[in-house]
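Tutorial, part two.
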Amino acid sequence: MHLKTPALVLRVTDYKEHDALLTVLTPNHGKMTVKARGLRRKNSPLVAPCQLLAYGEFVLFEYRGQYTVNEAFSIELFQSLRRDLVKLSLGTYFAQVAELISQEDLPNPELLSLLLNCLHGLSKLDLPENKVKAVFELRSACLAGYTPDLFGRHICGSQEPDRFDLSQGQLECRGCRHMGASGIRMPVTASVLEAMRYICYCEPKKLFSFQVGEKTLEQLADISEAYLTTQLERGFSTLDFYKSLLI
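Running the prediction step on this input gives:
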């Protein structure tokens, strides 16, 4: 059986002498593992569309539950992204997160669209890295089922919170915290909170249509990263590498 689908390559793993295994994200079949025969041979026609972070049209052949790439055609390779190691490492981090939160045989067009829009924002729109990073992290958390409650304090109900509980995804103020309370809180300003609300609840096409100052953007990126990693209960080697390049 043949299957034709658009897909974004999330990971490439060497397999045998000349082949590779690809982890790809598709809109209607979720995450898939496919074999690319001869990908590592010189002059293979699959090299461009099957590289990491390449988006293309794939023709797959299925046999006994395993898929092999018959043909692949590039749609977008994000070439400018590949010429900037810092941006490329950030895009690779996005791919690692997407691989973790996506599932096989579970359609997830929203996640694919988010990832493509963020890669486009980095490569074509040249948006600030912290802005794209915060958008991807917060929106990914929402798509993974961890939408935070960003309206009013969780305990006292007041509308003037000043901290965010990373574990519970809820707002608090100094008076809300009680003896024996566990979890990590981060300070949240009114401008950061407004940006978080926008990212979590806006229309997908307007994800980057907000403006904040540089300091607010840094705080937004920090809290978005902390929230996502707390909810997923793990770190990311690609994120560590990205941060090492900023030192």
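The chain has two domains: 2-76, 79-246. In part three we will examine how such features are distributed along the chain.
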